[in-house]
Write a structure and sequence with these properties.
The longest helix is centred in the C-terminal third of the chain and has 18 residues. This protein is of the alpha/beta class. It binds adenosine-5'-diphosphate and magnesium ion (MG).
């Protein structure tokens, strides 16, 4: 079970229309990268796929369920099966790494277990295992506010690995990492998706990372899907059109400085 969107539109509270009539069908186990300029609508689309934002038009089916037609309890159960890694992980600053990772299963555990785990970590070895895959195993009892932005992103990834969702969504998950670490981390996400047969959708600032690691690449522009095709068929002209307003196609070498306003133009294929 993957997901499908049909004619999905979304207007933010301030009246800005961020998605227009989006049709998208992704089968179970597919791995898809979303690319596109800042403000294109990638985060909004991922939040619709996480059942965190309710569209104002169209049909949404996630993991075989329609999130907005069932009961609140059904929506909670669905959300527990979906993992979204935020670009800037919303982790309470004083929280310890172990607690942040174990929070990945809060939606699946009974209330008593969730509360107990907040006071006393119930499965530190499970958390350490996932952190070790991201080379952070020794930071288990560190406070999150002592970590760098890139380390925090890896804690958020460890949390979603620990959650073991059926639909894994990642919003620019390596934007605060250097190119080498970005490469390893995106590879790990893909390995995990393949190993567990999970559907993976990740937005990526660096186009070359998307093309190297994902079989299917979707270009998002002005709240619409500009192209949706196998990575092997994406051509430079499409990328130039996608990033026309940004003055160049962003590549991993400059992605580490994701906050730099306009990356220099680079050849991409
Ligand atoms: N909560 C919000 N309220 C109002 N406008 C928003 C909100 N979130 C995003 N937007 C606007 O919607 C558009 C798409 O944003 P976003 O989905 O974050 O794009 P991307 O992730 O591709 O940068 C942008 O113009 C952004 O300013
Ligand atoms: Mg975004």
């Amino acid at each position: 079970m993957g997901f499908s969107l049909e004619g999905v539109g979304l207007t933010h509270a301030n009246g800005f229309r961020a998605l227009h009539d989006v049709d998208l069908r992704v089968a179970a186990g597919e791995r898809v990268a979303l690319v596109g300029a800042s403000g294109a609508g990638k985060t909004t689309l991922l939040r619709v796929l996480a059942a965190a934002l309710r569209p104002d038009g169209g049909q949404v089916s996630l993991l075989g369920m329609e999130p907005w037609t069932g009961s609140p309890a059904a929506l909670r159960r669905l959300r527990a099966r979906i993992g979204l890694v935020h670009q800037a992980p919303p982790i309470p600053p004083r929280q310890r790494v172990v607690t942040a990772v174990l929070a990945g299963r809060l939606g699946q555990w009974p209330l008593w277990k969730s509360l107990a785990s907040l006071l006393y970590p119930l499965d530190p070895e499970g958390a350490r295992h996932e952190l070790a895959r991201l080379d952070l195993g020794e930071r288990l009892y560190e406070r999150c506010d002592r970590l760098s932005g890139g380390q925090l992103q890896r804690v958020a990834l460890a949390r979603v690995l620990y959650q073991q969702p059926d639909l894994l969504l990642a919003d620019e998950p390596v934007s605060a990492m250097d190119p080498a670490l970005s490469e390893l981390t995106v590879a790990l996400l893909n390995e995990e998706a393949i190993r567990r047969g999970v559907t993976l959708v990740a937005s990526l600032h660096a186009v070359d990372l998307a093309l190297r690691h994902f079989p299917r690449v979707i270009g998002v522009k002005d709240g619409m899907i500009l192209f949706d095709m196998p990575a092997s068929q994406v051509r430079e002209a499409q990328l130039r059109e996608l990033y026309a307003a940004e003055g160049g196609v962003p590549m991993a070498g400059v992605a580490a400085a994701a906050d730099v306003a306009a990356p220099p133009p680079l050849r991409c294929i």
